[in-house]
Amino acid sequence: MSLALLCPGQGAQHPAMFDRVRDNAAARDVLDGVGAVLGQDVFAAAGAEARFENALAQPLLCAASLAHWQALRTELPVPGMVAGYSIGELAAHAVAGTLDTPSCLALAAQRARYMDAASPAGAGMQALLGLDRTRVQSLCAVHGVYIAIVNGHDHFIVGGGLAGLEALAGDARAAGADIRPLPVHVPSHTPLLQAAVPRFAAALEAVAWQQPGLPVLAGIDARVVRDHAGKVHTLSAQLAQTIEWAQVMRQLFERGARVFLQLGPGTALARMVASAYPCCEVRAVEEFQHLDGAVDWVQRALVRLQ
């Protein structure tokens, strides 16, 4: 039984996302580093209306996970594993010690640029809940859109052109599904972004990677990433390939994780794990007013599950 850390993807950014680490000395290098990458104060960037655009969102999200980890790492038991959702997978490698903070933040900015450059105009993403994968895949084929992320047996993120998404939404609602538009204008994790893959792979190749201190699971196949080639492949391929998040959660559980802590903004990953594995102890740092509360909860949860 062990602790697993989760690094979130886009969607939950908000102006107060760095408040818990604003005055934390261990997090200062991360906050200063992302400010330098963005060319503006990190707190101003988090509060900007453009915080959902890739150029701000991706460095901010990596910084949020890393800043919270730096603030917590000496107080928490050593985690058994770490996984990240979309851009969170890049942050997960830095949390694991595979990648240093400056490289992670620089790669996040490059990733955003390459994705924006590859993205077609008039595209987006939406959540679809209530249908199984076979039915969703059939609807996607009809309307020329794609499954971007599999969150559960009836919970998907689909991406593509806006006209196709609108048509799919109509058919899916008629079949009893719930559709929720997302504040994302790039069809991430679909073949529409294939042009970004080799460019990001080249950027990843140029980085000095370290041996990980923690196992990292890849989003595209839920396998532990073990070597340099695997890191480059999985992090670049996921730009244009479906993320199998439900499989990642299952692998974390099957490998012994019973306590899960989501870093960064939001609670979405924590809620998904708690729903899929109600026997586990699951929280997000944003559920605590202070980081001391998160530390105390993790320590008590590990004891409760012994």
Automatic annotation (TrEMBL):
EC number of this enzyme: 2.3.1.39
One Gene Ontology CC term in the entry: cytosol
Highest taxon, organism lineage: Bacteria
Signal peptide: none
Sorted UniProt keywords: Acyltransferase, Transferase
InterPro entries per record: Ac_transferase_dom_sf, Acyl_transferase_dom, Acyl_Trfase/lysoPLipase, Mal-CoA-ACP_Trans/PKS_FabD, Malonate_deCOase_MdcHsu, Malonyl_transacylase_ACP-bd
GO BP annotations, alphabetical order: fatty acid biosynthetic process
EC main group: transferase
Gene Ontology MF annotations: [acyl-carrier-protein] S-malonyltransferase activity
All copies of domain Malonyl-CoA:ACP transacylase (MAT), residue ranges: 6-305
Name used for this protein in its record: [acyl-carrier-protein] S-malonyltransferase
